[in-house]
Amino acid sequence: xxxxxxxxxxxxxxxxxxxxxxxxxxxxxxxxxxxxxxxxxxxxxxxxxxxxxxxxxxxxxxxxxxxxxxxxxxxxxxxxxxxxxxxxxxxxxxxxxxxxxxxxxxxxxxxxxxxxxxxxxxxxxxxxxxxxxxxxxxxxxxxxxxxxxxxxxxxxxxxxxxxxxxxxxxxxxxxxxxxxxxxxxxxxxxxxxxxxxxxxxxxxxxxxxxxxxxxxxxxxxxxxxxxxxxxxxxxxxxxxxxxxxxxxxxxxxxxxxxxxxxxxxxxxxxxxxxxxxxxxxxxxxxxxxxxxxxxxxxxxxxxxxxxxxxxxxxxxxxxxxxxxxxxxxxxxxxxxxxxxxxxxxxxxxxxxxxxxxxxxxxxxxxxxxxxxxxxxxxxxxxxxxxxxxxxxxxxxxxxxxxxxxxxxxxxxxxxxxxxxxxxxxxxxxxxxxxxxxxxx
Length: 440
What we know:
The chain is an alpha+beta fold. The chain has helices at residues 89-98, 129-132, 137-146, 164-172, 218-233, 246-263, 270-283, 327-343, 416-431, 434-438, and strands at residues 2-6, 16-22, 29-30, 35-40, 45-49, 54-59, 66-68, 72-77, 236-244, 290-292, 295-297, 304-306, 308-310, 313-315, 318-319, 356-360, 379-383, 386-393, 396-410.
């Protein structure tokens, strides 16, 4: 009996996706709930599980096709028997070399059940078949596609396991071809200067020069479209300030061990800034508002979209009711988002909504930037790297750990005075964190 495999619900307002990759081939056995394909939506990548155990008999769509929620993409036959796997040339060669007499097999691979560590690293070239068969289907296909050695990659998944994004990042990190050497100038001579010769024609390029065309992923297309829409729609303006991070750094140094012991999470900077923004939004509610048609929508809650870097682009999961959360709750939520973003496990629901955005370019070394609003929000706060700079305190020039802050805002809704006031309130709360405790 054949069972249809349908595209699952992909999240609120998402009606279709792109079939990015088949994880199983026709004739292969699948277990119930085992992923057989991966889909890309406008926001996240999701895997399509098999509803039953059986054999994949039909693939009804091709990689790259757009599929709607609820449409049938494959069929699973519960009564069929999987086709025997045919040995690859590499496997056949290995068998004839290591086991010519047909004696018992000698495993060339040991897999640690907890860490997924692999022995016998492979030299440059296609990955060994005996190594890749121990990996998950998605990772195995990525290893074969990109021709990388899985034993040389440090996994970022749970318990150090390899993820598909780990393989892609390793493939992209391979050394680029060396630049062509520059031609040496001819040695000077004492011969008379000859008449000027005609300008030489341009020499053709030499060396290994390659170009690669890669179709934009659905997520990257959505990022590009939304950023351009933000520029075309909002009257964006950015105001700047700097903040002395001494008080926050001192507080973290004093309480980080107790905080981690009690809550099981490190005390970071983001908790202070989320709390500071929540406090400032009470004084300047327009920063936490949005425009819908000819109306302004004010929110009595703060849902903070936190910009997180993922292998396929920037994503913005939402910390909901951040104004009512404790420092520990904020730090735990953000840490979980960062971990799941690297593993490709964020859902569309994680990124739905949001009334205000905080983006920390400082973790990548950014000194100053003008962040772009995430519509329909009206403002975004940009954090940057901390560096010691000379400042004047009580008439003395001293070195202080300073950070530039940037607030980009929609001038249609937020006046300059309101934007500056909001940023000053954030600065005051960070430089004197006691304000966060007494709501001042």
